[in-house]
């Protein structure tokens, strides 16, 4: 055995003691961990996805009757407004029928006016005269009856007076019936009114037949296909023009069903065309399909553009153009915001308290891809450990990360749930 001097033993013991002390200090010393300090700041949750401009409705226009084409006012590619005349058929026959119907209407109106102005007053005058004649005949009958009783007149004279009363009464009844017939609810008035209404209906029908000889645009749009020329005889139901009719400018998107709970009609959206990255515009969620596509696991979402202000619709959009859409699905003007990386698997967090990592179970609210709203369980200003791998009870020394002006720590992910091609550009619109 080799002999070690006593001085060497002491030196070796000292080295071992120092190593043990260092190891003990390292084992007992707190671990430096990153932490964030809870602060109030705005919080936005958005959903990003791709969409396409919906193809406008295609409509085939044709005649409702057989006629010869007099004029075609549009060519392929021409734009038109609602109500514009596109095709004119020869109108001579229906125009003559309209003139004849209007003449019949004037006659019926004249008869009705005459009945109101002349027939009723004449009948009323005849009734007054018949009443007077009846009264005179009745008075003559009474005198004749007295004179017969005094034997001044014979029975024959009395019979003549009675016949005169019967004739006068019959005339009065006829005059009364004539007056009633020409009254407001009488048969003569009703007949004249019915003739007038029939003549007016005939005029409306003639106008409708004449209007059928002009094919008009059902709404604003553009001519796609022209299949008719002047002089051609067209049949009812045959397509003469194919047009695209403009309606509300709509965007259609297929959104993963996982995000269905975040979407609802009326939500604001910002849209950006990949071909025009410097010209974002506003849109609104209009409707959500009631069913989910079983094969793709997506739901169809329709947005409208410029519904209240048609002048604000972008003029550069084309059919089936690809767009990046960001919908604002949640918004808090002021909230306690916590980075998601500080959230543990069980939903708890660790706070640095008296040099130890202490577990807390906060109440959470609105959640984005990188942040979550804290509704309770934590106090403003507390240091929350941003490393979810730290175990509760560990000795820690919190190192607060610097926050930006909005109170957020650097390096957070996008607020969108389904990134689009121009997500960052349109996200800036909501943040402003």
Report on this structure.
- It is a single chain.
- This protein is α+β, with helices and mostly antiparallel strands and 432 residues long.
- The protein is 33% helix and 32% strand.
- It contains 5 helices and 21 strands.
- The chain has helices spanning 6-28, 92-149, 155-181, 187-211, 423-431; strands at 31-37, 40-53, 57-62, 67-72, 79-80, 85-89, 214-216, 221-226, 233-234, 239-245, 249-256, 268-273, 276-288, 298-305, 322-339, 349-353, 356-360, 363-367, 371-376, 383-385, 396-400.
- The strands form 5 sheets. The chain has a 6-stranded antiparallel barrel.
- Helix 2 runs antiparallel to helix 3 (155-181).
- The longest helix has 58 residues, at 92-149.
- Mean pLDDT is 78; it is low at 24-28 and 409-428.
Notable characteristics:
432 residues, alpha+beta, 6-stranded antiparallel β-barrel, 5 helices, 21 strands, elongated
How would you summarize the topology of this molecule?
Elements: H1 6-28, E1 31-37, E2 40-53, E3 57-62, E4 67-72, E5 79-80, E6 85-89, H2 92-149, H3 155-181, H4 187-211, E7 214-216, E8 221-226, E9 233-234, E10 239-245, E11 249-256, E12 268-273, E13 276-288, E14 298-305, E15 322-339, E16 349-353, E17 356-360, E18 363-367, E19 371-376, E20 383-385, E21 396-400, H5 423-431
Parallel strand pairs: 1-21
Antiparallel strand pairs: 1-20, 2-11, 2-15, 3-10, 4-6, 4-9, 5-8, 6-7, 8-10, 11-14, 12-13, 12-15, 13-14, 15-19, 16-17, 18-19
Helix pairs in contact: 2-3, 2-4
């Amino acid at each position: 055995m080799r002999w070690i001097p006593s001085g060497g033993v002491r030196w070796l013991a000292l080295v071992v003691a120092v190593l043990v002390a260092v190891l003990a200090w390292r084992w007992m010393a707190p671990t430096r961990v990153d932490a964030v300090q809870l602060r109030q700041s705005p919080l936005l949750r958005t959903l990003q996805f791709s969409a396409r401009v919906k193809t406008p409705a295609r409509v085939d226009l044709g005649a409702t009757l057989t006629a010869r084409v007099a004029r075609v006012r549009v060519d392929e590619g021409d734009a038109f407004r609602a109500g514009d005349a596109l095709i004119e058929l020869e109108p001579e026959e229906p125009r003559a029928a309209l003139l004849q119907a209007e003449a019949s209407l004037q006659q019926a109106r004249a008869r009705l006016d005459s009945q109101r102005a002349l027939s009723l007053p004449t009948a009323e005058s005849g009734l007054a005269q018949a009443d007077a004649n009846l009264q005179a005949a009745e008075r003559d009958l009474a005198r004749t009856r007295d004179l017969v009783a005094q034997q001044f007149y014979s029975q024959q004279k009395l019979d003549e007076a009675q016949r005169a009363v019967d004739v006068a009464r019959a005339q009065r009844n006829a005059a009364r019936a004539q007056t009633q017939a020409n009254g407001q609810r009488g048969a003569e008035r009703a007949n004249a009114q019915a003739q007038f209404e029939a003549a007016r209906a005939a005029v409306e029908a003639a106008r409708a037949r004449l209007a059928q000889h002009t094919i008009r645009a059902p709404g604003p749009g553009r001519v796609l296909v022209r299949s008719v020329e002047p002089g051609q005889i067209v049949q009812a139901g045959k397509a003469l023009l194919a047009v695209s009719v403009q309606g509300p400018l709509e965007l259609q998107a297929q959104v993963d069903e996982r995000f269905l709970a975040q979407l609802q009609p009326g939500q604001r959206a910002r849209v950006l065309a990949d071909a025009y990255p410097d010209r974002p515009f506003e849109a609104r969620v209009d409707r959500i399909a009631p069913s989910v596509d079983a094969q793709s696991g997506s739901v169809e979402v329709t947005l409208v553009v410029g519904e209240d202000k048609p002048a604000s619709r972008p003029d550069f959009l084309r059919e089936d153009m690809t767009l990046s859409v960001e919908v604002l699905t949640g918004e808090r003007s002021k909230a306690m915001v916590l980075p998601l990386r500080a959230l543990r698997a069980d939903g708890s967090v660790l706070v640095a308290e008296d040099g130890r990592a202490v577990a807390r179970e906060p109440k959470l609210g609105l959640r984005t891809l990188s942040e979550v709203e804290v509704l309770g369980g934590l106090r403003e200003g507390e240091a929350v450990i941003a490393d979810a791998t730290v175990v509760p009870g560990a000795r820690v020394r919190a190192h607060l990360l610097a926050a930006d002006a909005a109170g957020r720590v650097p390096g957070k992910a996008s607020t969108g749930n389904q990134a689009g091609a121009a997500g960052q550009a349109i996200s800036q619109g909501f943040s402003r």
